[in-house]
Here is the input.
Amino acid sequence: MRIDSIARFIKLMGGLAIFGIGLSTMVHARIGIAPWDVFAQGLTNIAHISFGTATVVTSILVLIAWLPLKQKYGLGTVLNALFIGVFADLAAPFIPFPNQYWVQLPMFVLGMLIAAFATGMYISANFGAGPRDGLIVGTSKAIKKPIWMTRTGYELIVMSIGWLLGGQVREGTLIFAVCIGWLMQASFRLFKYQK
Here is the structure.
């Protein structure tokens, strides 16, 4: 493995670890879950499967949706699916569960900012996007719309479906759905990633 490849791999794993921290921070804020998680939660209600299984099923469906978009699976795609949850679990014992709303809201926003930063970091390592990120990047290219617009559209659609299926939607869910596209695009610029 060349030095460049090692540096990119460290960047990939660092981005996934940071994303896991951001995810755990949002969950511990307890003011809502991300739209894709609302969808997975809704799927558990109708299919009577565990949340983890619903998340895997959602990822498989998303990867199937990559096929007409001609997105390429990569090492990053697989590692994203395997390690973000592990890193979130490792971070969890160090993140508090605040009870005051004036702490919960900024904590959720901080977690979202961390996750957006990490997305640009691990995708720019060029080992392949995570399942949902690849769907967004591929769709953005196909419809010739900015990342923020494509991401926001997907987030609102899956959140709505998940809510109709009984998933939990709170203000954090809506904040994430509306803001993550802009933040992801800003992160891509920061890491000089061209879609």
